[in-house]
Design a protein that fits this description.
heterodimer, A: Rossmann fold, B: Helix Hairpins, Heat Shock Protein 90, three-stranded mixed sheet, 13 strands, 46% helix, binds adenosine-5'-triphosphate, binds magnesium ion
């Protein structure tokens, strides 16, 4: 069975490219364009990995990370921050909100490599 | 404090009177000048530009108007009743030093005028002690005002520089989003099913990707420079494998070559080399060097060579590009400096790469060196401690 990746981001261009790139790498991908209802989708669709943008209107992705985790059923889902923020601040956020890692937007090789490493394929 | 000394006036600038009379002038004539017509306080007695004494109103008065004084001295030369050892200072002496000397005099003489001479001992004029005290008060007041101004200015500059770094952080972030979108979309096009792209389109796409990746690197450099300038660049160590990082850097470098016939290879006998350092900064250092190598090499190869040394790793980035003249080597690390003539320049860039690289290397407590043969190629060599930054310091 294909591994599932959920991408949450308010930028439709980014959702489009990330979905296509990950599908071409052989994953099943769902996209969601707002932080709201993310915890719900994680529970029902049960992704193996969630990629969260950091700067989203309403709720910052790094805080959303904690909310998703707080939900009993999704405590073990892998979460990575995926953002245009500079790498050093992304590293800090990932540390601070106990995400499983971070991926810099625009680093396509990094996206492929880190997703593959996280999902073990 | 330095300001106070530099701004303090010199004796020559405070002269209150340049008048002089001959030491041989008759006492009664002088008395006329001092008491009747001109009400002068003090007159200098000068002959052939040499100072012989001072005729001071209060002192002359106390001699002459004692009983018979005027009768006794009236026809004598004024020198007979003058002060013959006045305080004499050089015109270049600073105010404070002159005041010090003046105040060391006996109480009765403290307010006596002071004679100013030039370097040859020639008479220049008189200083009044009261005038000097006033002047000194002004200097002190000024220096307080100046310090206050300097402080306000420093505070303003700090605020402006904070606004500047915030602005740069904001702008670079805004620039990154569309740049990343271009990189992603170009990659998707490149992955189009076999046969959909003509060879011509593939070439154009490689250039598009390379330009976007390069733009992204420039944005990172600008943000880095601003952080370094603001002293906000921190070192965070983590354990990582340098060989993996070198492979990753080699991959990015290949994109930058946009199809030019240059091979990029990592040369090492090791399969793994663990470093305890700031991975983001090590990557930035290497990418800056390989992006230069890629920029200035038309064909041949770019080698990333790594060797171990005691407590450090040595990474060499060698290219077979245009090379650098010996005379240009020292200009390399100066911000915004590019060796090519601005008018005829063939290569893009901001001239920040090496400046930032060197700063980052120093942050990691490492060193950087360069060797080059003009027309043949260049090697940059970076030495980085295997452990650097906070983790080591915490131990
Ligand atoms: N490998 C190299 N071969 C030949 N010349 C080089 C090499 N590396 C640097 N230079 C020269 O040094 C200059 C400064 O390099 P630096 O990396 O600081 O700036 P840049 O590459 O011009 O711009 P930027 O890196 O900011 O995009 C270059 O413009 C080039 O003239
Ligand atoms: Mg450069």
């Amino acid at each position: 069975m294909k591994k599932r990746v959920l991408v949450v981001d308010d930028d439709p261009k980014h959702l489009l490219t990330t979905r296509d790139l990950l599908e071409l790498s052989g994953y099943e991908v769902a996209v969601h364009n707002t932080p709201f209802r993310t915890t719900e989708i994680v529970q029902t669709w049960k992704p193996d990995l969630v990629l969260l943008d950091v700067n989203m209107p309403g709720l910052a992705g790094d805080r959303l990370c904690g909310l998703v985790r707080a939900n009993g059923n999704s405590r073990n889902v892998l979460i990575m921050l995926h953002s245009s923020n500079d790498e050093e601040s992304l590293r800090e956020s990932a540390r601070h909100f106990a995400a499983d890692g971070y991926i810099c937007k625009g680093d396509i090789a990094g996206l492929r490599r880190k997703v593959a490493a996280a999902l073990g394929c | 404090m330095k300001d106070t000394i530099r701004d303090a006036p010199r004796a020559g600038e405070l002269i209150c009177s340049r008048e002089a009379i001959s030491p041989m002038m008759r006492v009664d004539t002088v008395v006329d000048q001092l008491f009747r017509k001109q009400q002068k306080e003090t007159l200098a007695l000068v002959e052939h530009r040499q100072v012989h004494g001072l005729a001071m109103r209060n002192k002359v008065f106390s001699i002459l108007f004692r009983r018979f004084g005027f009768e006794l001295f009236g026809r004598d030369p004024i020198i007979a009743v003058a002060e013959r050892n006045p305080l004499i200072v050089d015109e270049k002496q600073p105010l404070e030093a002159v005041l010090d000397l003046a105040m060391q005099r006996p109480l009765a003489d403290i307010y006596d005028e002071i004679v100013v001479v030039d370097g040859n001992g020639h008479y220049q004029g008189l200083l009044s002690v009261k005038g000097m005290i006033l002047a000194q008060g002004n200097v002190l007041a000024n220096s307080v005002v100046q310090q206050e101004l300097a402080l306000t200015k420093a505070r303003e500059m700090k605020k402006i520089s904070e606004i500047k770094s915030q602005f740069i952080a904001h702008v670079t972030h805004e620039l990154r989003s569309p740049t990343n979108a271009i990189i992603g979309l170009a990659e998707l096009l490149r992955l189009s099913p076999e046969g959909k792209l003509t060879p011509e389109m593939e070439k154009q796409l490689a250039l598009l990707s390379a330009s976007a990746v390069n733009l992204r690197a420039i944005i990172t450099n600008i943000l880095d420079l601003s952080k370094i300038e603001a002293g906000r660049m921190e070192v965070r160590s983590e354990s990582f494998d340098l060989i993996t990082l070198l492979d990753e850097v080699a991959e990015t470098t290949r994109v930058l070559l946009a199809g030019r016939p240059v091979a990029v290879r990592v040369v090492t006998a090791m399969s793994e080399l663990l470093l305890d350092s700031d991975m983001i900064k090590v990557r930035q250092i290497l990418l800056n060097l390989t992006s230069n190598a890629a920029k200035f090499t038309e064909e041949g190869e770019i080698l990333l060579r790594v060797t171990e040394e005691r407590g450090a790793v040595l990474i060499g980035v060698t290219d077979t590009g245009i090379g650098i003249r010996d005379t240009d080597l020292e200009k390399l690390f100066v911000a915004f400096t590019q060796l090519e003539d601005a008018q005829t320049r063939k290569h893009e860039g901001t001239g920040l790469g090496l400046t930032i690289t060197r700063q980052l290397v120093h942050l990691l407590e490492g060193t950087i060196a360069v060797h080059s043969h003009f027309g043949q190629g260049t090697t940059f060599e970076v030495r980085i401690p295997r452990q650097s930054g906070e983790r080591e310091k915490r131990l």
